[in-house]
Structures are given as C-alpha cells and as structure tokens.
Amino acid sequence: MTVMETTAPTVIHLSGDIDIFTTAALRRQVLGALDDGAGALVLDMSGVTFCGAGGLGVLLHAQRRARALGATVTLTGVPPRMARLLEVTGLSDRLPLVV
C-alpha cells in the first residue's frame, strides 16, 4: 500500500493594482508563503485591475523561489488583458495559468 501525503494549496487572493506602490507588499506576502512551506501556491488574480512590470517581476521571482524550494506557483482568474500581456511577453510559458 502506498500512502501519499497531500496538502491543500495556499491561495492568495490579489486585488487592485499591482504597481510600484504595491509590489513590495506583494513580494513579502508571496515569498513569505513560500518560505513558510507552501508546497503549492495559487495566486488568484481575478480582482487585479492592473499589473505593471514590477508586478510581473515579483511573479517571476516567486516562480524561481518556488522551484528552488520544490514548490509550485500557479496563477488563476487572470483577467483577459493580463493574460494577453503574459502571452505576448512569453511569460505564460513560465507562469502556469489555470483557466
């Protein structure tokens, strides 16, 4: 018999603008969740109204940290405009999206 231990993913619900004023707090929250042992981190983007370059940088940094820790980061509820941005920049290949 094989017993697999599974844990529910950690979900962070994001809302509003992810810009120069909010990226530091986002970085602390996301990296903190990973450092606290979240093996699977889901970022719910459904409430995000804007994501600037700094926000994309935070998401990529989180993905790199997750890989280093053996964890995953997945985006869900990505608004169409942001999904297009991720696609055009090629970041959709590096940041898994769940529709």
Automatic annotation (TrEMBL):
Instruction: Name it.
Output: Anti-sigma factor antagonist
Q: What is the lineage of its organism?
A: Bacteria, Bacillati, Actinomycetota, Actinomycetes, Streptosporangiales
What positions does the domain STAS occupy?
1-99
Q: Which domain of life is it from?
A: Bacteria
* Source organism: Herbidospora galbida
Q: Which GO terms describe its molecular function?
A: anti-sigma factor antagonist activity
The entry assigns this protein to a family as follows: Belongs to the anti-sigma-factor antagonist family.
